[in-house]
Specification:
- With 315 residues, the chain is an alpha/beta fold.
- It folds into two domains: 155 residues, Medium-chain alcohol dehydrogenases, catalytic domain (Quinone Oxidoreductase, Chain A, domain 1); 129 residues, 3-Layer(aba) Sandwich (Rossmann fold).
- 27% of the residues lie in helices and 27% in strands.
- The strands form three sheets. Strands 3, 4, 5, 6, 7, 14 and 15 form a seven-stranded mixed sheet that branches. It has a six-stranded parallel sheet with strand order 10-9-8-11-12-13, with helices on both faces.
- The longest helix has 14 residues.
- Bound molecules: NADP nicotinamide-adenine-dinucleotide phosphate.
- The site of NADP nicotinamide-adenine-dinucleotide phosphate has 27 residues, from α1, α3 and α4.
């Protein structure tokens, strides 16, 4: 530790949004191979409120939530050549270990970051890493989605879903997206070819012959959506490892299915930056809250139905 302090949102117990408290805490220092980033914006994701309430990968508090960071390099640790102080960077460092993005400073391995695309402000950049890397790792690394393939994106209006629609469309895939009708125009503008209102139709009985399914819903949807895949197709499920229960059923049907957990990924960030630069990817933005109002950001996010990513502004 540096002996200096910083503002951060900490929690001492698991619970509702009220456990998130602004505090003054130790400011980290960059270790070997790390950079110290002065946070300008921190993205808010469902894993944040799952962790706040249940501990998830962080276990017992005290801890500082948040993985999505956009900010400016304050200092670099021994051996870092990728960045220098003053560089604007973004990333999803350390996931699923503690990154502590709900704070004025984050120290983490340099290779968990990339330069922020100049086309984006810090709030937009902080909206991208966790959701964008999840979408890309699912579609590209697991699904190996190709031009012309049929892709079904459940919860396409969500943080992961709306980025997955754009990434799949950038490959020339045929994108079938599920969302309430109110969100259809926005998703069509992002590249969805077919839109289904999941409140009006049973998606898993009307869609067939898809090469890849992104299941952001989990629960009963995971087994039910196997029926939409063509032989040899791939399903990636995101909400919980419990969805691995479908693996034997999938094997019987001649498809691949299972849970995937996103990982820090500089190569993925660079690919996302390229899509931003070429105008093929942009985050839909929801409300921004100052760091001190992290609890309110969670209240809005947990209610669902908010189109666009929620971020905390820090600097
Ligand atoms: N495993 C991993 O590495 C990983 C990474 C990221 C996220 N996740 C998980 O993936 C899930 C989605 O994350 P997210 O950030 O995309 O969440 P989100 O932004 O909170 O997604 C909410 C959206 O889901 C849509 N939705 C709700 N029920 C639906 C249904 N039955 N059919 C279609 N759409 C429905 C809603 O769209 P409408 O407004 O159209 O109703 C809403 O906009 C969460 O459980 C999250 O924890 C896992």
């Amino acid at each position: 530790m540096s002996g200096k302090t910083m503002r951060a949102i900490t929690q001492d117990t698991l619970g509702g949004p009220e456990v998130l408290r602004p505090t003054e805490t130790d400011r980290p220092e960059p270790g070997v191979g790390e950079i110290l980033v002065r946070t300008h914006a921190a993205g808010v994701n469902p894993i944040d409120w799952k962790t706040r309430e249940h501990g998830a990968f962080l276990g017992k508090p005290p801890f500082v939530l948040g993985w999505d960071v956009s900010g400016v390099v304050e200092a670099v640790g021994l051996g870092v050549r990728l960045f220098q102080p003053g560089d604007e960077v973004y990333g999803m460092p350390l996931f699923p270990e503690q990154a502590g993005a709900y704070a004025e400073y984050v120290a983490a391995p340099a290779r968990h970051f990339a330069h922020k695309p100049a086309e984006l402000g810090h709030a937009e950049a902080a909206a991208l890493p966790l959701a964008g890397l999840t979408a890309r790792q699912a579609l590209v690394d697991v699904g190996r989605v190709q031009a012309g393939q049929r892709v079904l994106i459940h919860a396409a209006a969500g943080g992961v879903g709306h980025l997955a629609v754009q990434i799949a469309a950038s490959f020339g895939a045929h994108v079938i997206a599920t969302a309430r009708t109110a969100n259809h125009d926005a998703l069509r503008a992002l590249g969805a070819d077919e839109l289904l209102d999941y409140t009006a139709v049973d998606v898993n009985t009307v869609v067939r012959d898809v090469d890849f399914v992104l299941d952001s819903l989990g629960g009963a949807n995971t087994a039910a959506t196997l029926a939409t895949l063509k032989d040899g197709g791939t399903l990636v499920s995101l909400p919980s490892p419990e969805e691995d229960a479908v693996i034997p059923q999938a094997a019987e049907r001649g498809v691949r299915a299972g849970f995937m957990l996103v990982q820090p990924d500089r190569t993925g960030l660079l690919a996302i930056s390229d899509l931003v630069r070429t105008g093929q990817l942009r985050p839909l933005m929801g409300p921004a809250f100052p760091l001190e109002r992290a609890g309110d950001a969670h209240r809005v996010g947990e209610k669902a139905g908010t189109l666009g990513k929620i971020v905390l502004t820090v600097a």
